[in-house]
């Protein structure tokens, strides 16, 4: 037997290495086969996608022309500097941007700055959203912070692990977002965009920086860079981030750079990865420097982030497109907007084009042709500005404490064709240069603040000092619940507020032609009847009691024509009462004037369904005339505030004094106290609401109020303490006195609602009568042309960019009113005497020597009682038409704090001199114009070759 043991064979270690290497290489080969054969198409698509870029080509907006084919808004091609993010351009971002900023600065070109987080003169961040309302600012601030992911951190803190958030949850996040200051937002963005890369850190340093707080990183950067330098880089970083929502497209570094600057960048592009130069259209307003028709045309600006979803759905590129923000630019946005084109290209690692894949031509927007005549518009704007300056600096009236330098800083003019409703000129002062918003760098922080966030405190101090007002800043510009000052008394001039279409003003005596029409058509007077125009209207005590409104003068014997010429209030007070008596002396009779006013477009019947509008294409406010339903609703609304006011003061009128009630609603009131306060107010208002024809039911009122006042004493420590203090000082608290004062308040308000006193006020254009200047022009036009009310319109036609008419706007009749020829003739003759009376006529001094017969009516309308204590004066309102025998043009003028109605008459004359200039030159060659720019308009025509 063989017992010899076999020797075990050992494994060679080289063999092991070979086996391992074989396995590794086999895996590599398998992976390569998988990637290059099985996944070839997939990765080819990915590579192509990452190297593709869409280079958008903006479509020019449609142009805006005046009625003579002059360009009011057009486009010009400008050079734009862009940056495309790629792997290579990202690696050298800060090096590249440093060179870019240096070149821009050397050539005095500005970096594009649309970031709403600004830096003030003190080096402090602040938000600037170019809106004036607090609600809009809050919404935009929230959107700004959400777009940059600031809500994510708050969500983790408040709702960690919660997947679906409710609307209440989102509201709580918004509340927290608003609390984050502009400074902390700046800190956040520095870290969010990893701006510590400005320091060119090593990998280890970068890891350390990531663990630092946003403030620590910012403070570290501030040791080497200024805050403005940091923000310059942040502008580009932020633009890339915001652009990423719309795909990988170039972002704009600088727009509208000079041609020489563009040439320099072209030469240096190879050393600036991602940077390129392109040509793009920019909105341009040829007459912008004159603010010509700015309130009509409007302006364009970038899309607010809060509205981006809405515009993305409509095909806008929210990162680069602009939209109309006001006027025609906004109202006809869908017409003016072109369709953006673009080219899909392949790019290399530096963002340079290597191949063009697809090209889509942009199509320009359609063109809008306005009824505005640029020469008439210029005369309107220029003469209005001159007249406002004249009132501010030249008018003297010893009756006013502010005898010189009225606050005549706001005004408007409207000129329309009497037989079509076409607007020939519409000016609102102050205006603005729309190029400020379309040309990068023109909207400075100073201008932005002036336009959208005015310093009411500084302005209020100036007003108080200038006019020696016995008011505090808080009284003149009170703060709202958020601590922001409000222009309660409409003192501050607002460039973006169209005073022609949005400002509602009392018409004053310009309403008297309407009262004349109503009285004549109602048959309560005839054109030849005369009466004695006294100073005090005290001849109707059975209807008006002891109330006797006054006129400035005693005019003696007047008929309708002379009453219009000299603006005799007594005559029109009498007409108001006569119509009231004729129509039944009831609440329906209080609408005696209103039923004619509604037919002339001066308000609408509250019981009807007619839409209140003049037809104007841009935003408007539509005013209402005095009528029973409207006045009652207004009285009930404001009575609540008056009730709280006098109860809080503890005094009503001259005969009722009592312990001041704790009646004003407060946040810290408990539920019982809130309920009691509300019931006291409701008890008074309900009695007024249910009163009719001067009949007041106070059954149970005293009992009800007695219980509520006792509840108030029980529930309000403030009120009970006041009662104890009064009783201890010998002034006994009397619940009865409080109730009697409330009853007197009810009788007073009910009397105002149900008696004809307000109708008498309305007959001369005072009281609650408030209308836009466009309404006034339209109503005078309806009378001038014999009774046809036309839609007021600014647009004549829409054309394509070749001049082909796509839509034409013809005169549109909104209504007709029958006017007896003899009545119409009397009204026109009276208005003619206003401008052309031989020895009287409130505007005659302004039309001496004018060769074409005109008609007019002045109106001096009070802002409010004791208006001078608030820095205000009367409105100067003036309406006119010409020629008298065949009216072609109607003009309406208003100057806020304009002193007297006739002050605006020269503005109408300037417009007439321009409108009739050819006729005047031909028929009256020796005529000397009142203005040196009317017969020979100074503005050159600006036209293009595309207009057919």
Automatic annotation (TrEMBL):
Keywords: Cell membrane, Cell shape, Cell wall biogenesis/degradation, Membrane, Peptidoglycan synthesis, Transmembrane, Transmembrane helix. Residues 411-684, 749-912 form the Penicillin-binding protein transpeptidase domain. Its main location: membrane. It is found in: Cell membrane; Membrane. It is a single-pass membrane protein. Residues 57-356 form the Penicillin-binding protein dimerisation domain. The chain crosses the membrane at residues 12-34. It holds the Pfam family PBP_dimer. Belongs to the transpeptidase family. This is Penicillin-binding protein. It comes from Clostridium yunnanense.
């Amino acid at each position: 037997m063989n017992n010899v043991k076999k020797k075990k064979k050992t494994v060679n270690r080289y063999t092991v290495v070979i086996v391992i290497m074989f396995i590794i290489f086999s895996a590599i080969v398998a992976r390569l086969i998988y990637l290059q054969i099985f996944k070839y198409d997939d990765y080819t698509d990915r590579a192509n996608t990452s190297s593709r870029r869409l280079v958008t080509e903006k479509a020019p907006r449609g142009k805006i022309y005046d009625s003579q084919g002059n360009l009011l808004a057009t486009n010009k091609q400008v050079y734009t500097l862009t940056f495309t993010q790629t792997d290579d351009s990202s690696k050298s971002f800060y090096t590249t941007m440093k060179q870019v900023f240096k070149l821009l600065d050397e050539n005095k070109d500005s970096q594009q700055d649309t970031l709403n987080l600004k830096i003030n003169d003190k080096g402090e961040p602040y938000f600037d959203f170019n809106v004036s309302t607090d609600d809009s600012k809050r919404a935009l601030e929230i959107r700004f912070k959400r777009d940059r992911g600031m809500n994510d951190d708050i969500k983790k803190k408040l709702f960690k692990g919660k997947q679906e958030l409710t609307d209440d949850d989102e509201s709580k996040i918004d509340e927290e977002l608003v609390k984050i200051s502009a400074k902390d937002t700046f800190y956040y963005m520095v870290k969010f965009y990893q701006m510590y890369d400005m320091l060119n850190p090593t990998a280890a340093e970068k890891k350390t920086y990531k663990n630092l707080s946003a403030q620590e990183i910012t403070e570290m950067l501030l040791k080497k860079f200024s805050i403005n330098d940091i923000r310059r880089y942040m502008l580009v970083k932020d633009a890339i981030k915001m652009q990423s929502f719309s795909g990988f497209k170039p972002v704009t570094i600088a727009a509208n750079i000079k041609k020489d600057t563009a040439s320099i960048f072209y030469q240096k592009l190879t050393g600036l990865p991602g940077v390129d130069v392109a040509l793009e259209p920019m909105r341009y307003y040829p007459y912008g420097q004159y603010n010509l028709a700015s309130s009509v045309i409007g302006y364009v600006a970038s899309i607010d982030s809060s509205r981006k979803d809405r515009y993305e759905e409509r095909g806008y590129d929210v990162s680069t497109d602009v939209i109309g923000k006001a006027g025609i630019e906004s109202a006809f946005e869908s017409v003016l907007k072109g369709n953006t084109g673009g080219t899909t290209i392949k790019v290399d690692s530096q963002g340079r084009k290597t191949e063009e894949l697809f090209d889509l031509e942009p199509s320009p927007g359609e063109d809008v042709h306005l009824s505005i005549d640029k020469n008439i518009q210029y005369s309107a704007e220029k003469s209005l500005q001159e007249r406002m300056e004249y009132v501010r600096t030249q008018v003297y009236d010893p009756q006013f404490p502010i005898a010189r330098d009225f606050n005549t800083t706001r005004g408007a003019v409207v000129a329309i064709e009497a037989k079509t409703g076409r607007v020939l000129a519409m000016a609102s002062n102050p205006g603005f240069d729309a190029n400020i918003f379309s040309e990068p760098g023109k909207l400075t922080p100073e201008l932005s603040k002036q336009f959208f966030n005015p310093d009411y405190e500084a302005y209020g101090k100036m007003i108080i000092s200038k006019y020696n007002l016995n008011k505090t800043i808080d009284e003149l510009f009170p703060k709202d619940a958020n601590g922001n000052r409000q222009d309660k008394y409409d003192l501050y001039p607002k460039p973006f507020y169209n005073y022609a279409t949005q400002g509602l003003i009392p018409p004053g005596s310009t309403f008297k032609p309407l009262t004349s029409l109503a009285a004549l058509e109602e048959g309560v007077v005839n054109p030849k009847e005369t009466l004695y125009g006294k100073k005090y209207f005290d001849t109707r005590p059975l209807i008006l009691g002891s109330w006797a409104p006054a006129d400035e003068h005693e005019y003696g014997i007047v008929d309708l024509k002379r009453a219009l010429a000299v603006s005799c209030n007594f005559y029109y007070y009498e007409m108001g009462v006569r119509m009231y008596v004729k129509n039944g002396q009831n609440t329906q009779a209080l609408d005696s004037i209103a039923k004619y006013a509604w037919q002339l477009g001066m308000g609408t019947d509250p019981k009807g369904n007619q839409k209140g509008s003049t037809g104007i294409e841009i935003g408007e406010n539509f005013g209402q005339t005095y009528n029973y339903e409207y006045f009652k609703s207004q009285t009930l609304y404001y009575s609540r505030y008056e009730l709280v006011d006098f109860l809080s003061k503890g005094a009503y009128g001259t005969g009722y004094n009592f312990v001041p009630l704790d009646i004003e609603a407060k946040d810290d009131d408990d539920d019982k106290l809130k309920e009691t306060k509300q019931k006291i107010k409701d008890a008074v208002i309900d009695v007024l609401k249910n009163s009719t024809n001067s009949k007041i039911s106070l059954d149970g009122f005293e009992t009800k109020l007695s219980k509520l006042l006792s509840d108030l004493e029980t529930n309000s420590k403030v009120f009970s303490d006041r009662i104890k203090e009064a009783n201890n000082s010998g002034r006994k608290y009397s619940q009865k006195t409080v109730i009697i004062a409330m009853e007197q308040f009810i009788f007073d308000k009910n009397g105002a609602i149900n008696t004809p006193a307000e109708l008498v006020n309305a007959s001369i254009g005072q009281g609650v009568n408030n209308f836009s200047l466009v309404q006034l022009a339209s109503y005078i036009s309806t009378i001038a042309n014999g009774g046809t009310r036309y839609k007021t319109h600014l647009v004549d036609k829409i054309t394509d960019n070749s001049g082909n008419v796509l839509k034409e706007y013809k005169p549109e009749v909104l209504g007709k009113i029958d006017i007896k020829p003899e009545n119409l003739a009397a009204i026109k003759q009276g208005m003619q005497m206003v401008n052309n009376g031989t020895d009287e006529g409130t505007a005659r001094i302004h039309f001496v020597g004018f060769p074409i017969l005109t008609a007019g009516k002045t109106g001096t309308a009070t802002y409010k009682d004791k208006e001078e204590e608030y820095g205000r004066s009367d409105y100067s309102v003036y309406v006119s038409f010409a020629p008298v025998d065949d009216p072609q043009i109607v003009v309406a003028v208003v100057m806020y704090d304009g002193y007297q109605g006739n002050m605006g008459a020269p503005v109408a004359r300037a417009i007439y001199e321009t409108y009739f200039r050819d006729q005047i030159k031909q028929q009256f060659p020796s005529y000397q114009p009142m203005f040196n720019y009317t017969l020979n308009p100074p503005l050159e025509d600006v036209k293009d070759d595309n207009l057919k």
